[in-house]
Amino acid sequence: MSVLLAQQLVCEKSDRQLFSDINIELSSGQLLYVTGENGAGKTSLLRILVGLSAPATGKVHINGFDIHKDMPSASQGLLYFGHKQGISQLLSALENLQFWCQQHDVKATEEAINGVLAELGLTGLEDIAVKNLSAGQQRRVALAKLWLQQDASLWVLDEPFTALDVHLIAELEAKITLFLKSGGTVVMTSHQKLSIDYPISNLHLDYSW
Amino acid sequence: MWKWINSFAKPEKAYWLCDVLQNWFAVVATASLVIGIVWGLGFAPSDYQQGDSFRIIYIHVPSAILAMGAYVAMAIAALVGVVWQWRTAFMFMIAIAPVGAVMTFISLFTGSFWGKPMWGTWWIWDARLTSQLILLFLYLGVISLYTAFEDKQQAGKAAGVMAMVGVINIPIIHFSVEWWNTLHQGATITKIGKPSIALEMYWPLLICIVGFATFIGWVTIVRMKNEIIMRDLHRPWVAKRFGGLVDLEAAVANEKDMKGGQ
Amino acid sequence: MTFQFENMTDFFNMGGYAFFVWASFIGTFICMFGILFQSLYVSKKIKQGVEKETVRAQRIMAARAARKIKQQAKIKEVSNEPKT
Amino acid sequence: MVALKSVFLKDLALAYRQRAELMQPLMFFVLVITLFPLAIGPSPETLQRIGGGVIWVAAILSLLLGMERMFRDDFADGSLEQYMLSPTPLYMIVVVKVFTHWLMHIVPLFLISPLLALFLHLTFDMYVALMLTLLLGTPLISFVGAIGVALTVGLHRGGVLLALLLIPIFIPLLIFATSAIESASMLLPYHPQLAIIAALLLFSVALSPMAIAYSLKVSQN
């Protein structure tokens, strides 16, 4: 069964048609790399795929569930990482991640979370309110979700490499490869070249008026 | 049947329907407004209590009833839009909203001009005037919410939610205001079988109601056509209809060639 | 059905309520014609706008095509340079 | 269940860390009420007659002021997206969030109300009626108001628009609540008004979560 199935997606923003007739079928272990210039609708496509925006027409199924009709079931194995990081500025890194785990049925102990934070170079910053961290550090807190979510089947990543240093980019790429090898599926956009040792399928969005 | 109805969800088809209906509505509206108002102003007998001031009824009552009716129509359109995702339903909704607001305004100031000679004051906080005033606020809320959004599809959905919340509220508002204060004279034509006003006064009123209703329909159709074109500006059918498409297609084809060649 | 007034002066006088009756009728007509003509005016404007919008779309597409040619030319230039 | 409880605890924690912001609507409430004796005159009879209405108007305005916060931060930092993509249905989360928000705003209002009753010379019966109507009416304001908040959350400067949308809708509530207080001042029974407010509350609690969830999705687009 395909992990992600999108049929005849049409997207309109402010009555301008961004793209039409997009068909995607991904099975486990596939990486889809979405490219296109600014304003071509990459982010819109990703948001439609995870069910945050409604397409003008078309359907999206994740693991066999229609994402726009049955969000709770379809989003079970889904992890979306968007422009907005989804972490509260007033809570600490640890609190944010604990909360996120409870929200998404992820079993992770405090030690496990602290371990992941340490892996991302945030040792000693676990209990400081996120607003006091730098942009890159905040980004890492958000990225920690990728390390915590063990049993996801689909990652949808929108520009995951922004505001990261070289080391972390390499680490993240390794993490993505590992996830793919373990049978995960990834849809992602990025402005920089992807240096992953893994077959990449490419989807190019054309700018249209 | 369902499929046939559903086909009007397409802007192109809806535009065609609007074109067909527009002239009919225009003719009926003009004719019945002229007949009804001339009849009402000159030929209907004057009221034995209120004298000739009662002739305001021929615009006050139709506008008051239809202001409410237009709101309900708007809310139904919103419901259709939300449930079946019809783009045209939202277009209808936003086309009729200003017309309904104007009707509400008309009913308010004619009521005020009628109240001055009858009750001796321009404004009374009586149940019907008050709930009509709130209706005007509800209209303005829907319109301003719609204009606040950049993306008009989003705007339609948002304003649609507000219209539905408002329509659920109308009976509650009506009931609460009635409870709060009853001073207005009893309803004039609620008893359809045996109207409490004379038949000679009743007929022109009915014609006026028809006239106002078709007038609302007419203006709504014109506005809806505007809305359809404005929203579908970038689609081929609009350009095909109003000229200038050929060059665009050539340009696109030209660009496609370029890509094929690279 | 008979005309209810003796003469036209009487008709315009409206049994002493002239101001109220005529003010509300005239006000209503102004409102109704206002919204009708506004709608018709906008409709005329929009139809003119369609043409303008097509011209704009055409210009955007042409500009993009031109840019693409330029970019391709540049790439060719780079690859044609003799390698040293 | 764990997810809903965590939403509740998170919102409590966030509210606690923004205590100062929480106090603003309350101060606004007290200030508006202080204006009335100054504008109308300090005679106890007048104040007693208008007291119930004044407190209710001030309560609606101050709740509207604080309401904007309900989804603002969650929308801005993307938590809302994560809520939508969590296995818990959005409308359940919304109910918890609205309830928490109401709790955060109504408790201080209740604590300060005896003082206001003194200011406006309310009798004990009127005070009881005021408390009961506030207890039943303010959750109604929060639930219906949350629809408006959800619709305007994506707009810049949606504050005035929010008031414009919501105030007409709260008019019936205002009428029944003040009429209950007026009945209490004349020592008449006021349970019909309370029953109507309770009915409206149940109705809104039943319907509004769906509308709020839909509106949030529209705002996300």
* Number of domain units of chain D: 1
Strand content of chain D: under 5%
Described by the principal axes of the CA atoms, the overall outline of chain A is: globular
State the end-to-end distance of chain A: 36 Å
Number of domains of chain A: 2
Taking the alpha carbons of the first and last residues of chain D, their distance comes to 28 Å
The unreliable regions of chain A are none
State the helical fraction of chain D.
Answer: over 70%
The value of Rg of chain A in angstroms is 17 Å
Please state the second-level CATH architecture of the largest domain in chain A: 3-Layer(aba) Sandwich
Number of strands of chain A: 9
| CATH level 1 class label of the largest domain in chain A | Alpha Beta
Give the spatial strand order of the biggest sheet of chain A: 6-7-8-3-9
Number of helices of chain A: 6
Q: Which outline of chain D best applies? A: elongated
Largest interface: B-C, 54 and 43 residues
Descriptive labels:
heterotetramer, B: 262 residues, mainly alpha, Four Helix Bundle (Hemerythrin (Met), subunit A), 9 helices, 79% helix, globular, C: 84 residues, 2 helices, 0% strand, rod-shaped
Indicate the topology:
The complex is a heterotetramer of chains A (209), B (262), C (84) and D (221).
Chain B: H1 2-6, H2 11-43, H3 57-84, H4 87-119, H5 127-148, H6 152-180, H7 199-231, H8 236-242, H9 245-261
Helix pairs in contact in B: 2-7, 3-4, 3-6, 3-7, 4-5, 4-6, 4-7, 5-6
Chain C: H1 8-13, H2 18-80
Chain D: H1 2-17, H2 19-40, H3 44-67, H4 69-77, H5 79-84, H6 90-119, H7 124-152, H8 159-185, H9 191-220
Helix pairs in contact in D: 1-6, 2-3, 2-6, 3-6, 3-7, 3-8, 6-7, 6-9, 7-8, 7-9, 8-9
